[in-house]
Design brief:
This protein has 134 residues and is mainly β. The protein is 0% helix and 67% strand. The chain contains no helices and 9 strands. A hairpin with a 2-residue loop joins strand 5 and strand 6.
């Protein structure tokens, strides 16, 4: 039987068009949000995130990265639609095979293609949550 060990959530904002933050060009990145979770031996962590972006030029390639205590554990590459369109980027990931303890989970974003021809803004929502299970 699955047991919930811990739950945490960090939401910068919960609705669209609540912020306007340019997505930085890689190798720089923007830390969207982070939280801490307790884990047990043999457990796993279910992570979910939603990030709202709006293209301002071209078709930017965006890299979302989840870090566990500073170490990347998951990346997702997404191409935002052109024409000033709103794109909600959502991801789910199950982290496992880690020692018991307390870990910080961080969500970052960066743009990986030319900023001369492509750009995007974070416009919300930005929501990141984790559920520690054993």
């Amino acid at each position: 039987m699955t047991q919930i060990i811990d739950f945490s959530r960090s939401a910068i904002n919960s609705f669209s068009q609540s912020i306007t933050i340019p997505v930085p060009l890689s190798p720089s990145s923007y830390t969207l949000t982070e939280f801490g979770l307790a884990t047990l031996q043999g457990g796993s962590v279910l992570l979910n995130a939603t990030v709202g972006v709006q293209t301002t030029l071209g078709n930017p390639n965006l890299l979302l990265t989840i870090l566990r205590s500073g170490t990347p554990v998951f990346t997702l590459m997404a191409t935002a639609s052109g024409g000033q369109r709103y794109d909600p980027l959502s991801l789910s990931y199950v982290d496992f095979n880690f020692p018991p303890g307390y870990f910080t989970y961080t969500l970052t974003i960066s743009q990986v293609n030319s900023s001369t021809l492509n750009s995007a803004n974070l416009i919300g929502p930005i929501d990141f949550s984790g559920l520690s299970l054993v």
